[in-house]
Amino acid sequence: MRHVRRRIVRRVTRLAAVGGLLLGGAMVAQSAMAGEPGGPAAQRGAARTLSATGADLVDRLGTARTAGSWVGDDGRTVVAVTDARTAAEVERAGAEAKVVGHSMNELEAAASALRSAPRVAGTAWALDYRTNRVVVRGDSTVSAADWARLTRVADGIGSFVRMERTPGTFTPRLNGAQPILSTGGRCSAGFNVTDGQRDFILTAGHCGPAGAQWFADNQGSRPVGRTVNSAFPGADFSLVQYANGAAGEGADVVAIGNGNGVRITGLADPSVGQRVFRSGSTSGLHDGQVTALDATVNYPEGTVTGLIETNVCAEPGDSGGPLFSDGIALGVTSGGSGDCTTGGTTFFQPVTAALTRLNVKLIVSAQAAGGASASPSSGAAVPSASPTQAAIAPGAASPGSTAPVTGGAGTGRTLVARLTDPGAVGPGLLVIAGSLVALVATRYLRAERDRKAYQRYYSTTWS
């Protein structure tokens, strides 16, 4: 009998995991909003198991035998490899292998050669793992002569460097969601961060140099803080220290209005193919996919490297705003081309790289930080290096939990733990079966409601 019950428990656990995938992590995210211990931990554990495989395999197999990894449309990890033997190793590890003609070493050497060529403003390039190419783009400001010179450089590297003209111009996206204003212009707050004693706003570096004073109104009567560290060009991030030293209550929440918000539970480096969300005051909430990593953009103001490339649209006014998915902070808006009518390309400064350079930590929810009631400035807020649930099922990702969940909070047990209790196996199976049908059926309605709420009440995390 015990053996039978254990088998039933394992089956329930597997069903619960499948339910989480079908819902794009909604059950896990809502459990975290309810304050149930283990909610974020369960998310991080599932993500490590299913989505960290690609990066782990690339690290283990080396850049001479691989050429990057991405998340396929079906949510499965795909690793580009250069030979059949390496492909077999990838398949044994449970990932999908794609044999390609050029290793990561060759792709990076090509990017290095492009960086060594004379700089041409209005160009950008990135490593396209899925096509095993280096894609070079030139906007409408690049002259025919400059484009021809750069094309000759690309031809000398090899046929795996693809040249593309793109409409619009590559420019930093000024202004943004929840504006902060100075005499130099208008920008956006991104995420709240801390050094354990003082709190700061992480935003784009092109928003202003060190020493810039920021206000929450045009009259300059509501001081926000002062830029104390800035990197642009090269990178694109800056720190604005709060005037009173503290971010205040709700520093871990991205508010969307009507008492709702998205709790920031950690940070991560995104995966190619992952579904992501960006918020900004000009265009509201928009989503798309990560199309490339380690991108280089030659803005008129200077060259920025190491960026996240996406097909999420953005417009002037969206700069500095947050990039996130399932409550996980990923980046701050740097710049791009196009608009949200015709589409375009938008680049983001990775949060992980910025925080490492700045030696600060992301302010996350108390549950994610491992404490029940830690204040943002206590130093208990710690970054999470885990991948997001969106890397498991990129097409089903959500911005994060957008409403508090009642019931079950404070019980000390996660949803899966309660359903897999051997004393409640029967009810657990019934609940899971019914929940899967009901929750999947309402997925579309909830996504549309959340999108409209973001467009009406877009916000960033500073108070």
UniProtKB/TrEMBL annotation:
GO terms, molecular function: serine-type endopeptidase activity
Tagged with keyword Membrane: yes
Superkingdom of the organism of origin: Bacteria
Limits of the Peptidase S1 domain: 197-354
GO terms under biological process: proteolysis
Family under the similarity heading: Belongs to the peptidase S1 family.
Name this polypeptide is given: S1 family peptidase
Protein species of origin: Streptomyces galbus
